[in-house]
Amino acid sequence: MSETQPAGLTLRAGTSEDGEACGSICYEAFKAIADQHNFPPDWPSSEVAGGLLTPLLSRGDVYSVVAEVDGRVVGSNFLWENGTIAGVGPITIDSAAQNAAGGRRLMEDVLQRAEERNIAGVRLVQAAYHNRSLSLYTKLGFDAREPLSNLQGPAINQKIPGYAVRQATEEDLGACNELSLKVHGHDRGPELLQAIRQDIAHVVEHGGRITGYTTTVGFFGHTVGESNEDLKALIGAAPEFPGPGLLLPTRNGEVLRWCLERSLRIVQPMTLMSVGLYNEPAGAFMPSVLF
Ligand SMILES: CC(C)(COP(=O)(O)OP(=O)(O)OC[C@H]1O[C@@H](n2cnc3c(N)ncnc32)[C@H](O)[C@@H]1OP(=O)(O)O)[C@@H](O)C(=O)NCCC(=O)NCCS
After folding, report:
1. How far is ligand 1, taken at its centre, from the CA of residue 108, in Å?
2. Measured from the CB, is residue 198 less than 6 Å from ligand 1?
3. Closest CA to 248 of 279, 274, 270, 229
4. SS3 label, residue 204
């Protein structure tokens, strides 16, 4: 454990009133570490970060925890608990209060919550250039599972012959869940259903059946496919790559090369980490940053 603890650091449940303070810390903390390494910030502004965090602070399927010192918010963390596997993040501690065990307290809190709820596994995506978060998560039991390349660029607009992409409907849910079960060992039905209802999910059909789906080809969506052709079809059909871009397993050299040859650029290296249940994927996939 760190020897220095921010004096009087306490944890409490987050509320939607914390959105502005947490958003501002989140933006500044990510920007500070990104600036140090000459990487672009993950968030364009404090308002955008606050706009994403505020609804999370009152969502039934997202657990939130806020750290305070002397009644002032100094950090926050989130556990996405709407599936078999929970996701962590974003976690941030005010730059002025970092490296003094606040991050460890916020991580231990969400891991304890996951244990209390008998969640089989917990995952997160880590900025690979950040030595401190990598060290902290590793010490807390997380293992690096997959190096990721965060890619961004103009829409590719390319169809893959024999692989038809269309918008997903609720009737597709069963086939998509089966596919996720086959590739990951568990389905991600609740978040897929949410994406279908927002009209942002797509499926790819090959040989008369669904062979891949995406909740969004971008930072906040996940994608599953039987083969690399399914991934290419879904990436090739995406009109844009929301947020900082998509997250492609770097070990998937074939699709990474395909993307790079079509003008996508690597924004930053990231790492998928997990503790507890993790099945080596039996197919092609792209994880989301949070859940
Ligand atoms: C990541 C973050 C939440 C961690 O919070 P923190 O309060 O700074 O970290 P802590 O002091 O609790 O823990 C750091 C741990 O890493 C260790 N550590 C730090 N740098 C290290 C290094 N280079 N090598 C080995 N260990 C290191 C510390 O000794 C400490 O270990 P301990 O808990 O066993 O004592 C915080 O730094 C932050 O908000 N960063 C910017 C945003 C961000 O990167 N978020 C995470 C995205 S993946």
Report:
1. 13
2. no
3. 270
4. strand
